[in-house]
Amino acid sequence: MWLKPEEILLKNAFKLWVTEKGNDYFVLQRRRGYGEGAGGLTGLLVGTLDTMLDSTSKVAPFRILHQTPDSQVYWSIACGGTKEEISQHWEWLEKNIMRTLSVFDSSDDITSFVQGKIRGLIAEEGKVSCGQEDDPEKFREALLRFEKWFDLPQKEKLVTYYSCSYWRGRVPCQGWLYLSTNFLSFYSYLLGSEVKLVISWNEIWRLEKTSNVILAESIHVLANGEDHFFSMFLHLNETFLIMEQLADYSIKRLFDKETFQEVPSLSDPLQITKRGLEMHARNEQFRAFFRLPKEENLMEVYESFLWVPFSHFNTLGKICLSESYLCFASQDGSQCHVIIPMREVIGVEKPDRSSRALTVCVRGKRALRFSEVRDFERLANAIRRRCGITASPQHSASTEVTCVNCTFSLGVSNFAVNYGHLENLGKYQIGWSFSFQKCLCLNTLASISGYSLLYPCFVLACQLKEKMKEQSWNIHFSEYGRGTSMFCTKKTRDLIVRGVPEALRGELWMLFSGAVNDMATNPGYYSELVDQSLGTSTLATDEIERDLHRSLPEHPAFQSDTGISALRRVLTAYAYRNPKIGYCQAMNILTSVLLLYAKEEEAFWLLVAICERMLPDYFNRRIIGALVDQAVFEELIRMHLTQLTEHMTDLSFFSSVSLSWFLTLFISVLPIESAVNVVDCFFYDGIKAILQLGLAVLDYNMEGLISSNDDAEAVTILNKFFDNVTNKDSPLPQTVQQNSVGNNNKASSLLKVDISDLIKEAYEKFGDMKSEEVESMRKRNKLYVIQTLEDTTKQNVVSGISSDFIKFSASQLDDLYALFKRQHFLSCYWTMNSPVLLHHDPSLAYLEQYQLGFEQFSLLFSLLEPWSLCSGKDAFFLWAFRLLDENQDGLINFREFCCALGKLIENVVHYVFSGYQAQFIQFSKTLYNLFHGDPEEESLYHAVARVTSLLLRMEEVGRRLQEPASPLKSTTSHTQALLEGCLPDGEASSTPESSFNTPNTPITLVASSVPQEIEWSFAFEQILASLLNEPVLVRFFERPVDIPARLDHKAFTHWPDNFNCML
């Protein structure tokens, strides 16, 4: 490869190079220790230097230097890993450069010309592969080493590389870690000891940062049951981030079959770059923190101070600017953040240039003042450009917007329990009017049973509590603002923990979840979805219909067609929007609660925020997201509840118990009036709130759980606890408050627990965990959860087909499945357009998830002896593939592949031998070709000759018994002559014992050599008995086949697995 010209002073250099070619302007050199005389101490020392040091001239075994006759300075311009590669560069120089150099008079002009030409070549070659890297020259050097050491397919894209140590026991091996699209690779060479490691990202079970006495900080990788530790990184956090991104990218692309069409930097696995991965990670973190739509990407970041008027001080933080949002997050512990949609901005002013400040004016007579912005003019112009605002020195709003303080009136009517904002019974908006609200909720129940007369004090107390909550929020709105640009601080969280007023719950859910922005940027979208999904019939719609009447059946809102129809429309519209998820159980329960406090369209966007942003991968066939969070929950139990872990070493019990907690946000286990308080915290703090509450529940029941004798008793303890959780601030009287399933008389005698107190305790005891830590734990446990599911899937698939294919043992089926899955992944590694990806259907059973096209099927079949030696193997593979592909989609699954291995051979042999003479001859040819190149080839040929002769004699005897007068000798002799004619000249003999000496070429015979079709009849038992009569044939067909060795031999991959598949 061409190198950026670098000056080299040979006079002071070590004699590590040998000159092989030279002329007046160029020198081709070979590094000592390579090629001829590569052995000895010199070779070992040079090899060690090449591994340890990051220098092109000390890595590549060949190089070309540029020189001028009157100078002692040389310039390195090219290097090569092989002599053929460097020779091509040398020939190009002689052909294109040498003649041109003769026209220059000055040596400086010659050197300048050569350097410019080489830089031009580098720029031309690096447009695609190296154009996005920080240091293309060093990256090209690393790419050379990567290709030389690991011999992976040329399409494999190297992303980045790092110097580090790999620990083999207690001994570190200093070398280089290479991170590519599909593989983690490491290479070390120290004094003759070579260490080479290649791990596929989809084989990793754990990836985490660790530390111990020996290793201060290291990266732990668990793959294929082996632990690998890498340490001594210059930038460990950066390295770990890239590794996390690549592992996650591989999991999503290979297991979930994501195509990343909305992420251009990841849409092509051949163009993945370090910068693209880092940008993708930043965008994901940005969207998750501010709850922004998935279309938003972080464009610019500015450090600044934000004036907080209610606290009267400047808080230090960062301004994050995307295409449609201006966000700010403090970094001084004040926990203040604000989100300003560009649609709300009406002006940008620069009042004080000395303090590098600017003021952003938003609707509602509010303004935010940022100061000490390094490039405040650029920021102001960027905001104006996104908002379409012209730079006016005197903005119309500047005189009005002087502070953040504004007065808001809620206008909450007397004791209005706002279940659903159901105000207009329109087509797309479920709306109970206020009078209809009363019919469904408290007042109707009270009038029917006389509660309004019997419990006047209770009704008044509820009114006062609600009024006090609303007043607290009014004060908060007046100080911090209301709506999308409201300041969120510690005080906001304190109000959330105490409980949200019924009248404000829907509004605040929309705000904190980010659903308000989704709905504002997609007007009319929900109505279109409802129209398009109306009347559709799918598996999702059938499941929705079955679950409609199971959604809060005790609640009056869903005891009429109005509530049921709204629920149906929301769920069906979402299934139509996101067919990958469609519909999953628990979505109906969540949506029912959302409809109680939000309008129908708002409930839809809240569901979108939950399923696609706040609880990713929760609502699919494998509920991976919920299982990951359960693994995080177990980890937190070990960290915070040590007393419980000492008593219960197996924490899997809590995973089975807590699954419904995570899927339904405690709605399925708590009374509805208590569960909504949990949902309040969830929309503000995300999954962290659910984890905290789960820990608080276990901590509250610690004594009972420790003293329990078995899991059933522990479950009973938790169920009784949930039945006694109440909400003293709920507008409903306790006699009509809905309790969870399983409530009993014994539970009512237990001590009641108020939900507000429980949530407050959860925040006080476990609120110190950070959202960033939770996300890190999620990523760390996701790999293990997915690999565990894959392992369970393999066991289910293998056990499901083991009874059908008794010829294979369970261990052999395990090996076959691993081989089949590996080949499936290989078809997806370097393309997004393989048939496997294009025809992927996530609704299919696990058995159908991994499939092979014809190319991959042929490759696997060709690796299985004896078919790889057949002269007509391609036609045979195609015929077998079409036979197995029953639905004609060009793909076969694992069951069909096992069918091909387990039954195809027997069927082929059986049907061939009920036919004609030509088929018998073809059978003999096939046997001869199978043995070509075998160590026992000669013995096998003699055995086949004896088998065919025996079969011919049996056929002749059979015919004579049927027709004694028929002269058949000539037919048999003719056939035997044809069989002898299958062999090369001079190889035929008259007797079976001397017939068919070892041929040197495969047999070929055309059908025209058979003069006529004579119908014969051979029983399969006769053929089998004849073959079994020859021990050498029996040994050949029973010989175990090492399929992985054949895979490695063909250099498709260098995976460390050792499959011992006995076929």
Structure in words:
The radius of gyration is 38 Å and the shape is globular. The protein is built from 42 helices and 23 strands. The chain is of the alpha+beta class and 1063 residues long. 49% of the residues lie in helices and 13% in strands. Helix 21 crosses helix 23.
Task: Provide key terms for this protein.
alpha+beta; seven-stranded antiparallel β-sheet; disordered C terminus
Chart the SSEs and their pairings.
Elements: E1 2-9, E2 17-22, E3 26-31, H1 40-52, E4 62-66, E5 73-80, H2 83-96, H3 98-101, H4 107-125, H5 136-150, E6 158-168, E7 171-180, E8 183-190, E9 193-200, E10 204-210, E11 218-223, E12 226-231, H6 236-255, H7 274-290, E13 300-308, E14 313-321, E15 325-330, E16 337-341, E17 345-349, E18 358-362, E19 366-371, H8 376-387, H9 434-440, H10 442-449, H11 451-454, H12 456-480, H13 490-498, H14 505-513, H15 515-521, H16 525-533, H17 539-547, H18 561-577, H19 587-597, H20 600-614, H21 624-640, H22 642-647, H23 652-664, H24 672-685, H25 687-700, H26 702-707, H27 711-723, E20 725-726, H28 745-748, E21 753-754, H29 755-766, H30 771-802, H31 810-829, H32 835-838, H33 846-849, E22 851-852, H34 854-862, H35 873-884, E23 892-893, H36 894-912, H37 917-930, H38 937-962, H39 969-981, H40 1020-1028, H41 1031-1038, H42 1043-1049
Parallel strand pairs: 20-21
Antiparallel strand pairs: 1-5, 2-3, 3-4, 4-5, 6-7, 6-12, 7-8, 8-9, 10-11, 11-12, 13-14, 13-19, 14-15, 15-16, 17-18, 18-19, 22-23
Helix pairs in contact: 6-7, 6-30, 9-10, 13-24, 14-20, 15-20, 16-18, 17-18, 18-19, 18-20, 19-20, 21-23, 21-25, 21-30, 24-25, 25-29, 30-31, 34-35, 38-39, 38-40
Domain Rab-GAP TBC: 499-686
Organism: Esox lucius (Northern pike)
GO cellular component, one term: cytosol
